[in-house]
Design a protein that fits this description.
Blueprint lengths: L32 H54 L2 H6 L5 H35 L1
Length: about 140
């Protein structure tokens, strides 16, 4: 008798991950209803715990935010008070708010002054150039 080696390609393929119906004959077991209810209950408990944790975190965040806002408002009031005490109150009282017409008049005057200054400078430059040309 001659013994021959079996080629590698003749070996059985690996078992599939999902059991197929033919594996039932070889002793594969199926899940029962009790195991599925246990797992579903466990998953529900986990979800409830996660929801509780999320709610607690949200409450803590809301508390910290409200505290931060209160602190910010208090600090702002303190800053305003300190600014008022540092500035001269008399100067604020002496100069009331200007009307829109007064502001426009001031702007016009300032513009006229600016343009006059610019014109004077231009004239001076022209005179200097003329003097240089004459020399």
């Amino acid at each position: 008798m001659f013994y021959t080696k079996i080629p590698v390609c003749w070996t059985l393929p690996p078992m599939p991950l999902k059991p197929s119906p033919r594996h039932k004959f070889f002793g594969a077991t199926t899940r029962t209803a009790t195991t599925t209810t246990r797992t579903s209950n466990y998953l529900q408990q986990q979800q409830q715990q996660q929801q509780k944790q999320q709610q607690e975190q949200l409450q803590q965040q809301n508390e910290t935010l409200s505290n931060n806002i209160k602190n910010f408002n208090n600090n702002e009031k303190i800053m305003q008070l300190s600014y008022i005490t540092k500035s001269n109150v008399n100067s604020v009282i002496k100069f009331p708010a200007m009307s829109v017409k007064d502001k426009k008049k001031l702007n016009k005057k300032n513009k006229c002054k600016r343009t006059r200054k610019v014109e004077k400078k231009k004239k001076k430059k022209k005179k200097k150039k003329k003097k240089k040309k004459k020399k």
